[in-house]
Write a structure and sequence with these properties.
- By secondary structure, this protein is mainly alpha-helical.
- It contains 7 helices and no strands.
C-alpha cells in the first residue's frame, strides 16, 4: 500500500506540472504577440519639413485601412515623378526629330496627367502632403534637357535619366503593392505600375537605353523556410522544457519522502519482531 504521504507528494507533482504547462503555453503566445506588436507598432519621429521624402514613421487610420510610411512615400514619389517627367514629355514634342522619342514623350504627358490627378485626390483623402515641385536632382535632369542641342543630344538627355528613374520607382511601387494594408493605395499602385511599365517600354523602344548603365539586379539572400512542422516542434520543445522541470521538481519532492517512508517502515517492522 502507498502511504498517504507518498500520495500527497504525487499529487503535488501533478499540480506543479499542471501549473507550469499553461504557463509554457502562455509564454509562447505572449512572445508571438509581442513580436507582432513590434512589427506593427506605431510612432512618429521628428519630420524634416524641408525634405519631401521624410514621411515619418506614424501609422494613421482611414476607412480604406492603415496608412503607413511606405504608403505615404509612394504618393510622394508619384508626385515628384509627375513634376519633372510630364515637362520632359512636353519638351520631347519640340526638341526631337526622332518619332520614337516624340511618342515616348506623348505617353509621359498622358500618363502623368492622369496619375497627377488621381494622386492629388488620394493624398487628400488620406491626409498626405505631397510636393508640387521636383527635387534638385530631378530639376537637374530638366536643365540638362533644356541645355542639350535639339536632336540626338536631347534624345540621350531625355531617355537616359527617364528610363533609370522609372525603373527605380517601379521597384517601390511593387513593394508597396505587395505589402500595403490600404485598399485605396493597393488599387492606385496597380494603376501606377501599369503606367510606369508603359513608359519603360516606350523609352526602350527608342533604342537609346544604355542597359549597361542601369543598376544590375541582385538576387535576395537565401533565407531558410520555416515549415509548420518546425514551428510545432519549436513550441513543443519549449513546453517540453517546462515539463522536464516539473518532473525534476516532483522527483526532488518525492524521493526524500519515499526514503523517509521506507526507513520508517523498516523501523516499525523491526519493532514488531520479538527478541
Amino acid at each position: 500500500m502507498i502511504s498517504r504521504t507518498v500520495r500527497k507528494a504525487a499529487v503535488l507533482v501533478v499540480l506543479a506540472a499542471g501549473t507550469l504547462l499553461p504557463a509554457a503555453g502562455c509564454s509562447v503566445g505572449t512572445s508571438q504577440a509581442a513580436a507582432a506588436a513590434g512589427q506593427g507598432g506605431t510612432g512618429q519621429g521628428q519630420i524634416d519639413p524641408s525634405n519631401p521624402l521624410d514621411v515619418g514613421t506614424e501609422v494613421t487610420q482611414s476607412q480604406w485601412g492603415p496608412v503607413g510610411p511606405a504608403d505615404r512615400l509612394m504618393l510622394v514619389k508619384v508626385a515628384l515623378a509627375g513634376s519633372w517627367e510630364l515637362p520632359s514629355g512636353e519638351m520631347a514634342q519640340t526638341r526631337t526629330s526622332t518619332p520614337a522619342v516624340r511618342t515616348a514623350g506623348q505617353h509621359l504627358i498622358m500618363g502623368h496627367t492622369m496619375l497627377n490627378q488621381k494622386n492629388e485626390e488620394i493624398a487628400k483623402e488620406l491626409h498626405v502632403t505631397i510636393p508640387t515641385k521636383p527635387l534638385p536632382e530631378q530639376q537637374g535632369f530638366l536643365t540638362a534637357m533644356q541645355n542639350a542641342a535639339p536632336g540626338i543630344d536631347f534624345d540621350r538627355a531625355f531617355v537616359g535619366p527617364l528610363r533609370d528613374q522609372h525603373g527605380a520607382v517601379y521597384q517601390l511601387l511593387s513593394q508597396v503593392r505587395t505589402g500595403t494594408r490600404n485598399t485605396l493605395i493597393r488599387d492606385f499602385a496597380n494603376v501606377c505600375m501599369s503606367t510606369v511599365l508603359d513608359h519603360i517600354t516606350v523609352l526602350e523602344q527608342t533604342g537609346l537605353v544604355n542597359y549597361n548603365a542601369l543598376p544590375s539586379p541582385t538576387a535576395p539572400p537565401i533565407t531558410p523556410v520555416t515549415t509548420a512542422a518546425q514551428i510545432t516542434s519549436d513550441n513543443n520543445s519549449s513546453i517540453g522544457v517546462f515539463v522536464i522541470a516539473a518532473v525534476m521538481a516532483g522527483i526532488a519532492i518525492v524521493v526524500p519522502v519515499l526514503r523517509r517512508s521506507s526507513r520508517g517502515g523498516k523501523r516499525r517492522a523491526g519493532s514488531a519482531i520479538p527478541e
